[in-house]
Design brief:
Chain B: InterPro entries: Bact_Sigma-Reg (IPR052016), CheY-like_superfamily (IPR011006), PPM-type-like_dom_sf (IPR036457), PPM-type_phosphatase-like_dom (IPR001932), Sig_transdc_resp-reg_receiver (IPR001789). Chain B: One of its GO terms (biological process) is phosphorelay signal transduction system. Chain B: It holds the Pfam family Response_reg. Chain B: This is Transcriptional regulator. The structure holds 2 protein chains of 2 kinds. Chain A is of the alpha/beta class. Chain A has 4 helices and 4 strands; from the N terminus they run ββαβαβαα. Chain A has one domain: 2-Layer Sandwich (Transcription Regulator spoIIAA), CATH 3.30.750. The longest helix of chain A is centred in the middle third of the chain and has 17 residues. The radius of gyration of chain A is 12 Å and the shape is globular. Chain B is an alpha/beta fold. In chain B, the strands form 3 sheets. In chain B, strands 2-1-3-4-5 form a 5-stranded parallel beta sheet, sandwiched between helices. A 5-stranded antiparallel beta sheet of chain B has the order 6-15-14-11-12. In chain B, β7 and β8 form a beta hairpin. Chain B is elongated. Classes of the chains: A alpha/beta, B alpha/beta.
Chain lengths: 100, 403
């Protein structure tokens, strides 16, 4: 998994690329640290470049949501297709993660 | 004010520092003066156990008789020379990683290459440079002890994991219990469970709900390894608390969810499907929490899916789990399976997905004879995607028998 943060003022878009699985735990946490340091008011996680997410990957998004609530930024998820969209719908995390 | 003192933790490096001086070092040289010189150098530096051999033959005898930690070996000796000693020591599987430091006055590149080809670990120049000798002895002893310590640690961890895997298998339904349910309810139950190389997050169970109904669940704790495995044990224990609620799968899962929301940290959860089949009426009651959608195989050959969409357990206390119904007649079958099947990567890097999995189920149904549906499906899956998988694999088929 790779990520890139683009921001316009306090609005950030994090574009993910690759699979989001158990082994990406370290990279995902580093992304969350970068987001916290950026002190954004809203972050959109763009998943259009993600082809696969496993249960641990979904768990990492829940941690992101908790960070967002604790740090006072708004989280939205967008661009999920294929397996990623199926997983978000099956687990209904699309609602919890504010899927656009 | 009261004060307390704590000793520093005993680190691996501190431990190895102490160990090197208790190492048993064998000095091999045909010249008595050289043996004494090297021996004095080692004991002067603090090494407590130094053994001596005056020939290659004697060195091999000693190394094969008692545990040696390091050998300092002269290359030019009458009888067996240093090269032959090296080669013979390396042929003994127990001495394959024994550090052997070869001392030679000849420093030509081809000579050094020959020394390493014969199995030596390192080279020390002759005449002996004492600081260099001590530095190399210490370096190779530390490296050797560290490798030994890590190997031991890995072996211990592997044994612990194997023990934990056995314990996990023991909390799954055993064949004898399954056979008794098959007899009571006139069903055939096929199961396949393969944990990953580490520990599993899959768990399934089956129980008699009433004289005419049979209950079953399959869950998958998020993540892999020790934390997922510990959570399966935790869930298995929690379920017993809600035995009376199992008749209503949705209510049962809401109770589990309430406990897990408190017990699991953010990011950990369990997907689950729970179902109760009444064999008198054919009514299947079920509820889902984000588990892969079970497949119903109809008598006429068609496939349909149960609706297990729902927030996994342990995420939100507000989650509701509705109990839904389906009709399962004799001759029909329910197949529950873990997500490893739909997350398998095809040759073109796309995922098999639910649609791909259903195609495999259809093919397995047509191909399965005496081998059974699950066995045929798993064999085909393993043949296509290889025998080892990144996640646990569980598949359970519950067939109503047609009389």
């Amino acid at each position: 998994m790779e990520y890139k943060i683009d921001h316009h003022g306090a609005q950030a878009t994090i574009r993910f690329q690759g699979d989001i699985t158990f082994s990406e735990n370290y990279t995902f946490r580093r992304m969350l640290s970068d987001v916290s340091a950026g002190k954004y008011s809203a972050c959109t996680f763009d998943l259009s470049g993600v082809s696969m997410i496993d249960s641990a990957g979904l768990g990492m998004f829940l941690i992101a949501k908790e960070n967002a609530d604790n740090e006072g930024w708004a989280l939205q998820v967008t661009g999920a297709t294929g397996h990623v969209a199926d997983m978000l719908n099956l687990t209904q995390l699309s609602k919890i993660l504010n899927q656009a | 004010m009261a004060t307390s003192s704590k000793s520093l933790p005993h680190t691996a490096s501190q431990s190895i520092e102490c160990d090197v001086y208790s190492a048993k070092i064998l000095v091999v040289d045909d010249i008595s003066l050289m043996r004494d010189l090297i021996g004095d150098c080692l004991t002067g530096a603090g090494y407590r156990t130094v053994l001596f051999a005056s020939s290659g033959e004697e060195a091999i005898k000693i190394a094969e008789q008692e545990p040696i930690d390091l050998v300092i070996l002269d290359i030019k000796m009458p009888g067996l020379d240093g090269f032959e000693v090296c080669e013979r020591l390396r042929k003994n599987p127990l001495l394959k990683s024994l550090p052997i430091l070869v001392q030679s006055a000849d420093e030509k590149p081809e000579q050094r290459a020959k020394v390493f080809r014969s199995g030596a670990t390192d080279f020390v120049s002759k005449p002996i440079n004492q600081p260099e000798l001590l530095a190399r002895v210490r370096l190779h002893l530390e490296k050797s002890f560290l490798i030994e310590s890590l190997t031991q640690y890995q072996q211990n961890m592997e044994q612990e994991l194997m023990l934990a895997q056995d314990m996990q298998r023991l909390i799954l339904p055993q064949r004898k219990a399954i056979a008794s349910f098959e007899e009571i309810f006139d069903v055939k139950i096929e199961t396949e469970y393969e944990g990953t190389a580490a520990l599993a997050g899959d768990l399934w169970g089956i129980w008699q709900q009433s004289p005419s109904s049979l209950g079953m669940y399959l869950l998958d704790v998020s993540g892999h390894g020790v934390s997922a495995a510990l959570n399966t044990f935790r869930l298995h224990a929690i379920m017993d608390r809600f035995r009376d609620e199992k008749a209503d799968p949705g209510k049962f899962m809401e109770s589990l969810n309430a406990v897990l929301c408190d017990a699991l940290p953010t990011g950990q959860f369990a997907t689950m499907v729970c179902l109760v089949l009444d064999v008198d009426t054919g009514q299947l009651s079920y509820a889902g929490a984000g588990a892969p959608r079970p497949v119903i195989m109809k008598e006429g050959g068609g496939l349909s899916l149960l609706h297990t969409e729902g927030v996994p357990l342990g995420i939100s206390i507000d989650s509701k789990y509705e109990t839904k119904s389906e009709q399962i007649n004799p001759g029909e079958c329910i197949l529950c399976y873990s997500d490893v099947f739909i997350e398998a990567k095809c040759d073109d890097e796309t995922l098999l997905g639910e649609a791909g999995f259903l195609s495999m189920v259809t093919a397995a149904k047509e191909a399965s004879c005496s081998q059974g549906l699950v066995h045929t499906l798993v064999s085909a899956f393993n043949e296509r995607f290889g025998p080892s998988h990144p996640d646990d694999m569980t598949a359970i088929a519950l067939h109503r028998i047609q009389r």
